[in-house]
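[job 0412] stage=fold_complex status=start
inputs:
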Amino acid sequence: AQTVTQSQPEMSVQEAETVTLSCTYDTSESDYYLFWYKQPPSRQMILVIRQEAYKQQNATENRFSVNFQKAAKSFSLKISDSQLGDAAMYFCASQYSGGGADGLTFGKGTHLIIQP
Amino acid sequence: NAGVMQNPRHLVRRRGQEARLRCSPMKGHSHVYWYRQLPEEGLKFMVYLQKENIIDESGMPKERFSAEFPKEGPSILRIQQVVRGDSAAYFCASSPQSGEYGEQYFGPGTRLTVT
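[job 0412] stage=fold_complex status=done
writing structure:
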């Protein structure tokens, strides 16, 4: 079974600053995927960034980047130059990639507040 | 290309009634996933379906809940004899048949309120 833990229920950052959201996971699988999803007040789930476990290079999408530490089972999200539109719930998720597309396992989320 | 559609967006049911939630996947997608989000929680996987087949229902409650994805038409999540604890947001996601792992596209969700 996979578990995903987000230890920060809420984070606050000043606009234009950088913030890092933490995520740890536990899986016995060797081949898996990791994701960060954003859920704004509209509740629509939006994929922010994904990482394949077999890739050592950290994924980057514009202002969003991850720090993937496979041995430590850590997958943090860094948001640079924070913008007001980044305010949302952020969920870390994992997916086992063997034997067919499996459901995602989500953490409980981090509420990100952007201070103007 | 329209995204994943879910309807209704809001559904109110009295205890004991049935709730039917619909999900139309993105065009060309034949994999559908249902998730439930309780207040202040992350999404919890319920069931994974392909056309006319349930692939994984390990997250589905054993009683009162069922899901289908017929050859024609949307996927349906059905909750019989609803109770207050079923109040939640229910999300559907779809992925393409030959897509890479992780390409799940989410619908806007259905918020179910049981009174």
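[job 0412] summary: Chain B is about 0% helix and 50% strand.
[job 0412] exit 0
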